[in-house]
């Protein structure tokens, strides 16, 4: 276990719970209505994306699974349990892999971290949010169609998914930096530690 | 044949499948990913197969028990914020709304005030239709628009435009009202049967005895009518119904229209006959909708004897 991983765990827990409460309790009155469905930004999904950007793929995958599980079981949910778990797990895994393998390495142990840069560039952030939103919504909708759990058809779901994508990207501009700030605060004084580690490595 | 075990000469492409130790430090093992996917799939299958009593339900309830109060608390705290957009209105919009609601309220008030009047008019029209059917004449409906000063006359809002002319019988749903004495293009003056000058040929409904019904000329004060029978040996009885006797060609009065009921009977010693006091069926001070008896087939708005009404004025 690496230093700061307890703080990271606490950070993810806090972020997920706050995101869940915001998503199911605070935002619905302000929802954007598409057809007869109210669409709100998927904050829990954005927490998973932020985790994937800030830490490693393994942690992001696990975060996605458990955050999705929470979303599946928390009160307003009445869909078949496991749908969001699978969707957010896929989001965590895919976003994590893409970011860490290709996009110049932003996460733990990456070049950015070694150089003391912890904030993701804006383009990467937006791309990750858009991709994650599309992937998560699609997996969730497809499992619903496959299991016969959702009354809506593909034609009805497409505009909803698009609006959700737009809302998610907008919300990501606030949510992802917030989650990253939370991680930094909770991984006890990371900047000095990082410098120490770099010195030790050198 | 030996495998080519030489290191590749071209530089290794940096792909997702790179085996760089440092880069792979955070990657989940394949078994973990498979386990998580299978876990989700298994959960979905179990929940789907279980339906209402799937093993997920108790878990769901526990999570709900824990998160429910938190959600309620958060909702209470944030309600002022989440309901804020609804409170954002311009002064103009609010004024407009007040105006709209005031107008609507006035319209509804007016409607409510007219409701009783409308109900009465409907009732009067129904009675008139029933009477038309009873006495077997066509009627032109008309409204009373003026009461004569000092004499027992009223004015109707129909005249020669509705084919009315003097000496036509006017009835209301309750019985005989009077006869038309003069008409203009759009009005007609009606002499009520309570007038001093009015005498109507009446007969007792029970025994067809003939007599004359005279008015007292005290319209609005004393609505009594008096009946004097032609046969001096017949004594009218209290409660007997008096109807019109009818004249030639139905002018001025058609036959068979109820006039009123016998209220009291006097013996006139000097004339050795009996006089009866009649209570008219019509309340002359509250006349509104009346009907003028016209020949069947008259143009305009007519209630026919069979109860059908034409409204083609």
TrEMBL record, chain A:
- Protein's UniProt keywords contain Repeat: no
Query: How does this protein lie in the membrane?
Result: Multi-pass membrane protein
Q: What are the entry keywords?
A: Cell membrane, Cell shape, Membrane, Transmembrane, Transmembrane helix
Where does this one sit in the cell?
A: Cell membrane
A Pfam family (short name) is MreD
Main localization is: membrane
Looking at the keywords, is Membrane present?
yes
Q: Which InterPro entries does this chain map to?
A: Cell_shape_determining_MreD (IPR007227)
**Membrane-crossing residue ranges in chain numbering:** 83-100, 120-148, 160-183
Can you tell me which family this protein belongs to? Belongs to the MreD family.
Q: What is this protein called?
A: Rod shape-determining protein MreD
- From what organism does this protein derive? Nocardioides ginsengisoli
Which gene is annotated as encoding this protein in its UniProt record? mreD
TrEMBL record, chain B:
Which spans does this entry mark as compositional bias, Low complexity? Answer: 1-15
Question: What is the superkingdom listed in this entry's lineage?
Answer: Bacteria
Which residues belong to any copy of the Rod shape-determining protein MreC beta-barrel core domain? 150-293
Basic and acidic residues composition-biased segments: 17-27
Give the family from UniProt.
Belongs to the MreC family.
Q: Report the protein's function.
A: Involved in formation and maintenance of cell shape.
- State the protein's name: Cell shape-determining protein MreC
Q: Which organism is it from?
A: Nocardioides ginsengisoli
